[in-house]
Specification:
The protein is mostly helical and about 525 residues long. About 50% of the residues lie in helices and about 10% in strands.
Length: about 525
């Protein structure tokens, strides 16, 4: 029975051990000769964008690395997003607790820990996020052990019909041929649905980068004349073109070496300019462009703001993560899906045969916790009876478990207080009322006030309760209650209760001022 890939295509064991023929036949130098220089304009980008979406992306691909080289901020945040995933470690979960399934999981885990494989996967992740797709060719040896080789994205092209299927281009078939089963690890992250070329982060960020590069050019031109006075030359109406040209050249010489020669009949004036005027326009626009790119790629701008407003000020509310956690999780899930589908399942099928349930490889993402808030929660919860394992605290704070003979930190013990003798008289209170209370063992302050209030509670509440009792005694039914309730409210007199509450509050305040 033939082994099928996830698309239902049968594999050919005699071909998947050989490099793809199109790669050996294609001259790699032809790719690098297409590297671009200079800069793009919005009109150029509109044409390149249209061609890329029509499955003719070569010119766009040739510009990607040029854009990354020229836009350092864009390259930095792209690298941040890539490294947030490439730095994670793999965890393999067996399909079940059976010995055979655990053995298979151990094989997979040993493969994913190979340094060369990790390095190739990192390049694939970079291409997937930046270009929209990344491909590794699987070179199987005679023992069916995989070796991954990164392939330049410019060897691939979207299909002409939908633009959603990746094909392998060759000199004989420039429109591309389907990728062979069990031959490729092809990572297409689910950043945007639809056409593959629209999927990459650079495709979405490049217009802002173009605007920023154009504004930087204007900024440099502005810097050349920043603070210089305007040089204005005047000539008579009957001046010849030769005289005008002399005046223009003289003005240019004044800007270079501050000396010039021109006829006496010509007049030159210097007009001072306000050097501060408009100077902030350029950097504010560049900052806006940078923030837009940061929001697209990192999901936030706060960590990039640390560069302009200072690390302390930008992080007053806590140190922010470089990449938002939900974006990191989503990127990791995309990579896991690709590896499980294109590498792990083919490896298992070739070594152990097809399985009903396959082990799963996952990228371990440490849970981000607010440690200050967690510490406060522990302090409040433990006295209330919450059972918190010590292992949880060690893991959350990154504290290793101490060994048996290892010295550990402990809270300092409070010094023992001197014993209080029974004959020691209490210190007299400042106010007279507490002085009387101190003459004998006294109950708590709230207990004293409570006892005093209970002595007169009936007199206090009679003006409130009596009108209510009389009202309900006179009412015959529900409609009576509804129609007459407003008149009853006016008879309630809370004056006595209010007075007693004020007196009690005053006494409590005095009793508290020891």
């Amino acid at each position: 029975m033939a082994i099928l890939d996830y698309r239902g295509l049968p594999i050919q064991t005699e071909t998947i051990t050989q490099p793809a023929l199109s790669l050996t036949a294609m001259n790699r130098q032809s790719l690098w000769r297409e590297e671009r220089g200079g800069y793009l304009t919005p009109r150029d980008w509109e044409r390149i964008r249209r061609d890329a979406l029509m499955s003719n992306p070569l010119e766009f691909m040739n510009w990607i690395e040029t854009i990354r080289d020229s836009d350092l901020h864009l390259n930095s945040i792209l690298s941040t997003r890539v490294r947030a995933i490439s730095g994670l470690s793999w965890v393999v979960t067996p399909a079940s607790e059976k010995t055979a399934d655990k053995k298979i999981a151990a094989h997979i885990e040993s493969i994913l820990k190979k340094p060369d494989l990790v390095r190739q996967l990192n390049r694939m992740i970079d291409n997937g996020l930046v270009w929209g797709f990344g491909c590794l060719e699987i070179l199987w040896d005679k023992a069916w052990q995989p070796r991954l080789m990164w392939r330049d994205p410019r060897y691939f092209i979207p299909d002409q019909e939908t633009g959603e299927t990746l094909l392998l281009a060759s000199p004989d078939n420039p429109l591309g041929a389907p990728l062979k089963p069990y031959k490729w690890v092809c990572h297409i992250p689910a950043l945007r649905p639809g056409k593959i070329m629209r999927n990459g982060l650079v495709f979405q960020a490049i217009f802002i980068s173009i605007c920023k590069q154009l504004k930087l050019r204007d900024w440099l031109q502005f810097a050349e004349i920043y603070g210089y006075p305007w040089r204005i030359g005047r000539y008579d109406n009957n001046a010849s073109e030769q005289d005008i040209r002399k005046l223009v050249n003289a003005l240019a010489d004044l800007g270079i070496d501050a000396s010039a020669a021109f006829p006496k009949s010509m007049e030159v004036n210097f007009v001072e300019t306000n050097a501060a005027t408009g100077a902030g326009l350029f950097d504010s626009l560049v900052d806006f462009c940078n923030n837009e790119q940061s929001k697209l790629i990192l999901g936030q701008t706060r960590s990039t703001d640390e560069q302009s407003v200072g690390l302390h000020k930008a992080s007053e509310a806590g140190s922010p993560d470089q990449l938002r956690q939900e974006i990191k999780i989503d990127d990791a899930r995309d990579v896991e899906f690709t590896i499980n589908r294109d590498l792990i399942e083919p490896y298992i099928n070739l070594h152990f045969g097809e399985q009903e349930i396959y082990p799963t490889a996952q990228l371990f993402i440490p849970e981000k916790r607010d440690l200050a808030t967690l510490l406060i929660l522990i302090e409040k919860a433990v006295p209330l009876g919450a059972k918190i394992p010590v292992s949880f605290i060690n893991e959350a704070f990154g504290i290793p478990v101490p060994k048996e003979d290892e010295e550990i930190l402990a809270a300092p013990q409070a010094p023992e207080s001197a014993p209080v003798t029974q004959n020691t008289p209490p210190e007299p209170a400042i106010n007279r009322y507490l002085l009387q209370l101190n003459a004998a063992p006294t109950p708590a302050v709230d207990e004293i006030l409570t006892l005093e209030a209970l002595d007169t509670w009936q007199q206090q509440l009679e003006p409130i309760i009596d009108p209510i009792v009389d009202f309900f005694a006179d009412c015959q039914n529900e409609s009576d209650v509804i129609s007459r309730i407003d008149s009853m409210v006016g008879k309630i007199d809370p004056a006595e209760v209010t007075k007693q509450l004020a007196v009690a509050a005053f006494k409590a305040r005095m009793l508290g001022n020891e």
